Amino acid sequence: MNASAHLSDDETRLLDPKQAGQASRVHRGLQEAITEGVIPPGVLLVSTDLASGYKVDLHVVAVALRGLAHNGLVYLHHRGAKVADAPSTPPIPHRSPRQARSHIELTIRRRLATRIYQPGSMLPRQRVLAKEFGVSAAAYRRAIQALVDEGFLIPSVNPRGTRVGDRLPRVETVPG
């Protein structure tokens, strides 16, 4: 997955500096709304509506949506983009509970390191992530416990969910 919290220079190379900043703002805003579940899977993001709402031109919106598509958060559509069911991850071959836990932990660790999940934001709901990985909510909670122990994730004291900590793993420290 080519995931990043920011648009690459290659994605913004045809924009002037002001437009590149606008595209980054739209990209970050939509990425946060999608990963926090504010914009649920299956929603069609209409380019003209986004351009109007963010007060930018359609070319800026197109660049932001292409960045989200590279992140696996949306599928491009002729009118805009459709929010993906879940961030793209390869299917898990469940050979053992230990292997499933390891796969889940590594996938979430990568998403944190690449800033798909931003510091201070909420992870998608446990049941959504458990379904994505094909495990029970309890198995998912066990799988992310190491990330909680390391301070990368902060469990909520109420049923609101899991918050991303301020300190995140570095990309270089996450096995590829």
Explain what this protein looks like in three dimensions.
- It contains 7 helices and 5 strands; from the N terminus they run ααβααββαααββ.
- The longest helix is centred in the first third of the chain and has 19 residues, at 17-35.
- It has helices at residues 9-12, 17-35, 47-54, 58-70, 97-113, 126-133, 137-149; strands at 44-46, 74-77, 80-83, 153-155, 162-164.
- It folds into 2 domains: 9-83, Winged helix-like DNA-binding domain superfamily/Winged helix DNA-binding domain (Arc Repressor Mutant, subunit A, Orthogonal Bundle), CATH 1.10.10; 97-173, Arc Repressor Mutant, subunit A, CATH 1.10.10.
- Strand 4 and strand 5 form a beta hairpin.
- The strands form 2 sheets. Strands 1-3-2 form a 3-stranded antiparallel β-sheet. It has a two-stranded antiparallel ribbon with strand order 4-5.
What would the keywords be for this entry?
transcription; 3-stranded antiparallel β-sheet; DNA-binding; Arc Repressor Mutant, subunit A; 176 residues; transcription regulation; WH_DNA-bd_sf; mainly alpha; Tscrpt_reg_HTH_GntR; 7 helices; two-stranded antiparallel sheet
State the gist of this model.
This protein is mainly α. Helix content is 47%, strand content 10%. This is GntR family transcriptional regulator.
Low-confidence stretches: none
CATH architecture of the largest domain: Orthogonal Bundle
**Extended strand count:** 5
Helical run tally = 7
Order of helices and strands: HHEHHEEHHHEE
Going by CATH, the homologous superfamily of the largest domain would be Winged helix-like DNA-binding domain superfamily/Winged helix DNA-binding domain
Strand order of the largest sheet: 1-3-2
Protein name: GntR family transcriptional regulator
Domain HTH gntR-type: 98-167
Keywords: DNA-binding, Transcription, Transcription regulation
InterPro entries: Tscrpt_reg_HTH_GntR, WH-like_DNA-bd_sf, WH_DNA-bd_sf
